[in-house]
Amino acid sequence: MKNISMRSFATLFFALSIVSFVQAAEIPLYPTGPSADSSFVRFINGTDRAVDLTAAGSQAKIELDGKQPATSFFPVAAKTDIKGRFSSTGATADVSIKVKPGEFVSVIALNDGAKLKQVVVGEEPDDFNALKVSLSFVNVSAGCAKADLQVVGRSILLFENVMPENLVRRSINPVRISVQLLCAGQSVGSPLNLGELIAGERYSVFAVPSANGSRIFLTSDSVSR
Amino acid sequence: MAVGTLAGIFMLVIGESHLSLPGYLINPLYEDLTTQGATVHEVGACGASAGDWLKEGPVPCGADRFKGEAVFKGRAATTIPIKRLIADDKPDLVVIIIGDTMASYDNETFPRAWAWQSVTSLTKEIATTKTPCVWVGPPWGNPGGKYFKNDKRVEFMSNFLEKNVAPCTYIDSLKFSKPGQWATLDGQHFNLAGYKSWSQSITEALASIPSVQSLKK
């Protein structure tokens, strides 16, 4: 992030859409929950070049690059328009989405020839568990049909046959592992060390297109506060 | 129950409406815990969910009891940021009694994402202070009433909390009684006899947790 802090950006980007349950809920004497479940959106750079993300109606900007390819999940109001723009060396792609209650949406910038495009992948998780690591595998590499993630040094497939533009999530124990991407059963690219995965935390491995076919990287699925 | 099972432990207890009104849990629990030798500071905030304890905000009613009689604050009550409470009190243990305010009894769909964010934001905030914590889940009520409390959802809520409150230790209040066993005023809040039973059960459960016992002085 180069131009402003993540928190400042979030404030500007979603100033009109951040949910305030205090305001949104019809509060009886003792409320027992919100009027609608929370919704979240984040932005991912799935290209091999730096991409700027700009909020609609604002000059606020986040630069997503190889070191920081993903934002945190920002809380947003469900069913409202979230608008912005990805841009990179003259190429742009408009961001326009709506998020359902309880949904976590990833908006991914991908190369489309010399242009940019957005791919949207959402999930409504039900696996929340502070004693396990939650890991998802998101395949947005069109050239990698039937993607697998294999644990390096073992014949275990963490994820199997994940089709492009799909997400699969599972719980695992908090262990140190490296994973290898397989496309149609063949190893592609280098192994990825996932490092120390912490129980209760949520992570995603993204498979995106690359000059060599496909590559993978890890993101934390943390929520912005 | 033996006396002095919680000797010398300073407990900061935060919670929802059960800790906020005269005749509710606040006084029986204070008396049971102090009888066992604990020093207790209770802070109640009606309708406050877990995440509400990260900031100060208004609540319809609340109470505070610390070294004296309970002070019931009515609409002047607020939530207090947990980090401020911990910094001021420097407790040995934080006890959280929250569940009914987050169960969405009147909503067919349980707001999982909201509940997860709310619960984990509080447990992570407490974890940054390195203060041990115990989370007391919701008890059985009586189906219906103005809060629409129901057995199926309270069981779901309890299971959800049990999976998500770590590093806090979970106390499952559903094990203390049978559904409907403790009489309520409105389906959710007990009469004094019910609160005394819940209080005794919580106190015994706290005294049975090895990590809590290790805090005795």
The total beta strand count of chain A reads: 16
- Fourth CATH level, the homologous superfamily of chain B: SGNH hydrolase
Mean pLDDT rating of chain A: 88
The largest sheet of chain B has its strands arranged as 5-4-2-1-7-8-9
- Sheet with most strands of chain A: 4 strands, mixed
How are helices and strands ordered from N to C of chain A?
HHEEEEEEEEEEEEEEEE
| Rg of chain B, Cα atoms, Å | 16 Å
Structurally, the number of domains of chain B stands at 1
Structural class of chain B: alpha/beta
Shape type of chain A: globular
The coarse silhouette of chain B is globular
Domains of chain A (count): 2
CATH topology of the largest domain in chain A: Immunoglobulin-like
**N- to C-terminal distance of chain B:** 19 Å
* Continuous helix count of chain B: 6
Give helix % range of chain A: under 10%
Overall strand count of chain B: 9
SSE class of chain A: mainly beta
Care to describe what's here?
The complex is a heterodimer of chains A (225) and B (217). With 225 residues, chain A is mainly beta. Chain A folds into two domains: 2-123, Sandwich (Immunoglobulin-like), CATH 2.60.40; 133-220, Sandwich (Immunoglobulin-like). Chain A has helices spanning 6-13, 21-24, and strands spanning 39-45, 51-55, 61-64, 74-76, 82-88, 91-97, 104-112, 115-123, 133-139, 147-151, 157-162, 166-172, 176-183, 186-196, 202-210, 213-220. A four-stranded mixed sheet of chain A has the order 4-1-7-8, with no helix packed on it. A four-stranded antiparallel sheet of chain A has the order 3-2-5-6. In chain A, strands 12-9-15-16 form a four-stranded mixed sheet, with no helix packed on it. In chain A, a hairpin with a 2-residue loop joins strand 5 and strand 6. Chain A is globular, with a radius of gyration of 18 Å. With 217 residues, chain B is α/β, with parallel strands linked by helices. Chain B has one domain: Rossmann fold, CATH 3.40.50.1110. Helices cover 31% and strands 17% of the residues of chain B. Chain B contains six helices and nine strands. Chain B has helices spanning 26-35, 82-89, 112-127, 151-164, 192-207, 210-213, and strands at 10-15, 39-45, 57-58, 62-66, 71-72, 78-79, 93-97, 133-136, 169-171. In chain B, strands 5-4-2-1-7-8-9 form a seven-stranded mixed sheet, with helices on both faces. In chain B, strand 1, helix 1 and strand 2 (39-45) form a beta-alpha-beta unit. In chain B, helix 1 packs parallel to helix 5. The longest helix of chain B is centred in the middle third of the chain and has 16 residues, at 112-127. Chain B is globular, with a radius of gyration of 16 Å. The two termini of chain B are 19 Å apart. The mean pLDDT of chain B is 96. Chain A binds chain B through residues 21-22, 27-34, 36-40, 75, 101-104, 124-126, 128-131, 199-200, 223, 225, and chain B through 16-17, 46-47, 49, 57, 60-61, 100-107, 109, 111-117, 120-121, 123, 146-149, 160, 163-167, 188.
